[in-house]
């Protein structure tokens, strides 16, 4: 959800614009054009120099896969962020591997992940998601000078996910990282409690962390002693992760008719003022 | 310099073996076959399944480029090391990008770096070295599960090198990382003092570090205040680096005739006992 997306969606509704507004949102940003639709979305790169055919298309609505859950692991970060637009422009200029990825690897991979989503094949979806996240960050490293987004904590999360998946020989959780160090984990509702137990064991909250887990409520049991011993990963200092958001797929922007759900008062003032976070 | 290399070299000398001993050392390890020769060496991958044609060949002896210096920045590391042999076997199995790198990128790159070395073209040599180190680690990240060798400190060293090179618009120092987090920097003798000043400013030694800089002696002035301010990189905690080795290209293993240079007494006992380091 981005500011350009909200602006385009709101103006389109206000003026009664019909049809595809994704190409208008694309003028604002890539994430804006993806966010005007809900569920799983494919962003077509297009070939028109004006960018007008660089639009998003819904693959399935959120209701297609109601069991899917998302955990956002927000990481403490010392590094200065590189703008994802600048980083990608530099990759296009300097990474020889990027050309090969775009022409030879991505077309097949996009078809496969659409198939996995349509069939709700979690293991296939998870493996493709992780491989593609790794390859995206490999491209960033092959850029000159290299663009670095993941840090040691991000890689520790990757390591934990592979340990959890190999533990029972079943891919039950997947990671993906965009142009930043925070992890986005995909998993099924039935695995949320067990995976969060393991995350809380390895990355315990800081003692003063009043709201470590945000979003959808979930019961977390302490990690079973035997599982903890077999995990082969020592717990980190409390507070190594800032906080965790537990959420699910959304249906995209909506016109809210119920006044109680509005974020603004009828006078246009915000109803809630929450403390600002760094991330 | 590796144990298999020393064993092969010593036995070859003892039994008067003539000719190429690199292919014998290759049976021990890749670094062994490279280390039986001095200066710059090319390791041919070969195509014989027995590995007998996987040998090293000297490009130039160390005396070809006497101005070249090497700084090894030894990094504190929490992560468990992945064996480079296991990691590479996994990359060959799972990384689609590796196939493209081997078939389409490396042949031209090897020719270019040999040319740069023969012509003592430092800027060309440095840029190719950095790009190839980045691409090697990109391959490791494209491996499934990813093989991680560099850590946050390694990437901070990369960042510092690019800052130093962009500062005066001249590539005066290059980094390369093998299957570990320690940096190997190449630079010319005339730049050693200034580069070490910047390294000491950003990565100050721990207060109790008695021998932070080892190897060839060099005078280091504190970093000029103006340069420090323009560097756009805050100093790290003292002791973030373990220590630094300042060295140069070697001529490979030698038969030492001078008894004073022997490491062992005539009875075969070690002359020096130095404290053991973790790295």
From TrEMBL, chains A, B:
Q: What class of enzyme is it?
A: lyase
Q: What function does this protein fulfil?
A: Catalyzes the ATP dependent decarboxylation of (R)-5-diphosphomevalonate to form isopentenyl diphosphate (IPP). Functions in the mevalonate (MVA) pathway leading to isopentenyl diphosphate (IPP), a key precursor for the biosynthesis of isoprenoids and sterol synthesis.
**Similarity comment: family membership:** Belongs to the diphosphomevalonate decarboxylase family.
**What EC number(s) does its UniProt record assign?**
4.1.1.33
Q: What keywords would UniProt list here? A: ATP-binding, Lipid biosynthesis, Lipid metabolism, Lyase, Nucleotide-binding, Steroid biosynthesis, Steroid metabolism, Sterol biosynthesis, Sterol metabolism
Please name the Gene3D superfamilies in this protein's record: 3.30.230.10, GHMP kinase, C-terminal domain (3.30.70.890)
* Record-level GO cellular component terms: cytosol
Q: Cite the Mvd1 C-terminal domain residue spans from the record.
A: 70-256
Gene Ontology molecular-function annotations: ATP binding; diphosphomevalonate decarboxylase activity
What positions does the domain Diphosphomevalonate decarboxylase-like N-terminal occupy? Answer: 9-56
Which reaction is catalysed here? (R)-5-diphosphomevalonate + ATP = isopentenyl diphosphate + ADP + phosphate + CO2
Q: Which GO terms describe its biological process?
A: isopentenyl diphosphate biosynthetic process, mevalonate pathway; sterol biosynthetic process
Protein's UniProt name: Diphosphomevalonate decarboxylase
- List, alphabetically, the InterPro entries matched: GHMP_kinase_C_sf (IPR036554), Mev_decarb (IPR005935), Mev_diP_decarb (IPR029765), MVD-like_N (IPR053859), Mvd1_C (IPR041431), Ribosomal_Su5_D2-typ_SF (IPR020568), Ribsml_uS5_D2-typ_fold_subgr (IPR014721)
């Amino acid at each position: 959800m981005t500011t350009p997306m909200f602006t385009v969606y709101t103006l389109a509704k206000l003026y009664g614009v019909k049809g595809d507004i994704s190409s208008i949102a694309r003028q604002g940003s890539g994430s804006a054009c993806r966010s005007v639709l809900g569920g799983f979305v494919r962003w077509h790169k297009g070939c028109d120099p004006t960018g007008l055919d660089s639009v998003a298309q819904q693959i399935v609505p959120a209701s297609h896969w109601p069991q899917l859950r998302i955990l956002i692991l927000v990481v403490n970060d010392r590094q200065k962020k590189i703008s994802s637009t600048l980083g990608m422009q530099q990759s296009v200029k300097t990474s020889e591997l990027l050309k090969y990825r775009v022409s030879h690897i991505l077309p097949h991979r996009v078809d496969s992940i659409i198939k996995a989503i349509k069939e709700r094949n979690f293991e296939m979806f998870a493996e493709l998601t992780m491989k593609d996240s790794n390859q995206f960050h490999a491209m960033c490293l092959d850029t000159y000078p290299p663009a670095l987004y993941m840090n040691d904590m991000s890689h520790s999360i990757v390591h934990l996910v592979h340990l959890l998946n190999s533990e029972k020989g079943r891919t039950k959780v997947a990671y993906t990282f965009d142009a930043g160090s925070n992890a986005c984990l995909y998993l099924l509702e039935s695995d949320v409690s067990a995976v969060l137990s393991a995350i809380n064991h390895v990355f315990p909250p800081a003692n003063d962390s009043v709201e470590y887990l945000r979003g959808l409520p979930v019961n977390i049991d302490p990690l079973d002693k035997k599982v903890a011993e077999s995990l082969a990963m020592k717990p980190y200092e409390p507070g190594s992760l800032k906080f965790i958001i537990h959420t699910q797929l959304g249906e995209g922007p909506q016109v809210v008719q119920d006044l109680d759900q509005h974020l603004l008062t009828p006078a246009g003032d915000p109803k809630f003022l929450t403390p600002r976070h760094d991330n």
